[in-house]
Design a protein that fits this description.
homodimer, alpha/beta, five-stranded parallel beta sheet, four-stranded parallel beta sheet, 12 helices, DNA-binding
Chain lengths: 359, 359
Amino acid sequence: MSERDPKPGPAPRASDARPVSGKPRAPRAVDVAAAAEVSIATVSRVFNNPEKVAPAIRERVLATAKAMGWMPHAAGSALARRRTSIVGAVIPTLDNEVFAAQVGAMQAAFADRGITLLLSCFNYDQDQAAHDVQAMLARGVEALAIVGEAHRPDLFASIQARHIPYVVTYSHRPDSPHPCIGFDNRQAFHTIARHLLDLGHETIGVIIQPTAGNDRVSARLDGVRAALAERGLGIRPQHLCEGEWSIDFGRQSVRAMLATDPPPTAVICGNDYLALGALLEARAMGLSVPHDLSITGFDDIAISRQLDPPLTTMHVDNHEIGRRAAAYLLACLEGSRPAKLPPLVPTLIRRGTTAVPHT
Amino acid sequence: MSERDPKPGPAPRASDARPVSGKPRAPRAVDVAAAAEVSIATVSRVFNNPEKVAPAIRERVLATAKAMGWMPHAAGSALARRRTSIVGAVIPTLDNEVFAAQVGAMQAAFADRGITLLLSCFNYDQDQAAHDVQAMLARGVEALAIVGEAHRPDLFASIQARHIPYVVTYSHRPDSPHPCIGFDNRQAFHTIARHLLDLGHETIGVIIQPTAGNDRVSARLDGVRAALAERGLGIRPQHLCEGEWSIDFGRQSVRAMLATDPPPTAVICGNDYLALGALLEARAMGLSVPHDLSITGFDDIAISRQLDPPLTTMHVDNHEIGRRAAAYLLACLEGSRPAKLPPLVPTLIRRGTTAVPHT
DNA sequence: GCCATCGATGTAAGCGCTTACATAGATCGC
DNA sequence: GCGATCTATGTAAGCGCTTACATCGATGGC
């Protein structure tokens, strides 16, 4: 302690300019302030309220900061400012193009405003989702976008306890207690089923993702059942396959279904991946689509329009969902309480995989 | 100020238990400490070094915290601990299944260790990438994974200045100055080209993503050229189409190429999306693949094996790249300086789109 | 029975930043 | 020419947390 160090501070600091010892610490605001011969407050102002500091000084500070490679450290400023500028996105998985698109769009929209996106994938596991949300809250996210509303009640409770804005995506029940950006899954599948019914189909199969703990999927199935019921029809048990959304599951399901008697003349699939599988397998089995079998998908992923025949499906603008979710949350953060957004309306794209039944 | 408040603190606090005024503030460690009748240090220990506090007290604190809905606030602890437990992933876009898979795998691997993933998509724009990295550094990321090494030099310089571990993915030049997790793009495309040459093709077209500012793509093109050169062949200018990786670009490129004289007997595509387009368009034009035209892809995305005929391509395990990148960074963070990882080796999957040339 | 030892808990000093408030020149009206 | 006013800058008090160090009983050896 023979140095001319006034304070007995225990930790050696970079600002001590001691050539000894290990890794150089990152420069701090006070280092920049010292180098630019201003106070630390001025440094801070240069970065947060530049108009409040004289141009000459401003330039000097900026130059010094740049030279030293300094920029405000987010943790410190988050603490002082009580704003983290972080928002979280909670989705099932990035392996589905649909959610990847939503996240991509949100990320872009937030980046414009200097907000960083924290991502979590819960893999269709409600406990995981609840846990991830906790972790995000601990990180101080200022807003949250969550796919679906079939989550543990404590998930929403803990968000609400923090009084931060949030939005549920991909769902849009008219009477949902949550702010939603999405579409009415039930209605959408009602529309698809009607399309098939109107073509004259009466024996309709369904290949769909697991409904357990997934409000969107349950709603889709409900929509189909409702449309059929209106015509006095139903789904035969052997014509309902529920399982992971994968091309392979679509394939094996359609194969199983076509082995029943009578086989369905049309198959409604819970998403395009399943429909792809159904289409490919039907063709592999020597069937002509749509002549022998009509097939519908949902989502309109990139590949769907490219197939031969191109897939009849419903188009959902996933980037738009991401953009709207971001816009909504941004508006909340800026203090306005935006009006409840209208639902998106997926549009039926009649392409080549549906036709009047042959039999 | 007639209250029995000892300090003249200006900001009203939740701990003042004043029923008046607006939003309730989130509880802090000191509130929990007070409620559990321990010191704030004990609260902190319960959450960070639980073995250091007596079981009875530990339970009491835990219960109190839970009741109050408290958990350590990340910004505060990041500051005190000088660890943010955040790592960043910098990728071109989530719209490509390949990068989405990598990010998904990294996210899962990090989540296990309590580390949060910050995501940024630079859309193949080097300036954007450099900017994003800056922002991440300001956020205090402790490590960084970046797709590709064709970035502005200051991007790497600023990472290195911070002395944080980083890794470049999807590249693996033997003499790269960066730690890489990926494969040798040049070698991989050399292999593909050889496959076609060995089948007897001599007029080979290439449909590829933009090479500018993309080291991976440039390497791929180099690999093809090298393999052709070994047989005294080259790529004719009219047989080289460079553009955005999209199914549509694949389609229009193959159409253009087949209009040349002589047309290529085989087309090497820079990725599976392009190959998909090429395949679909060739078929739409009435060609038989692979009889009239051989086509190769790269990446082996989910749909590729499902097509009819299934696509000959090279399989890359993108989840594995994510896992390895995460493992490498994790190891660095734990202090070990792991040995340079060996490259992944993409494997050629000969499926149905390549055969001996017909002509 | 007394002192050294040890384990559990508390005290307080920051972590790097923002910002309300204080201060000190400069400007201006009369 | 002097006080009022204003503007540019500085001072210092936190933001919520962790942790080195201090403290204080309890334990145990002799």
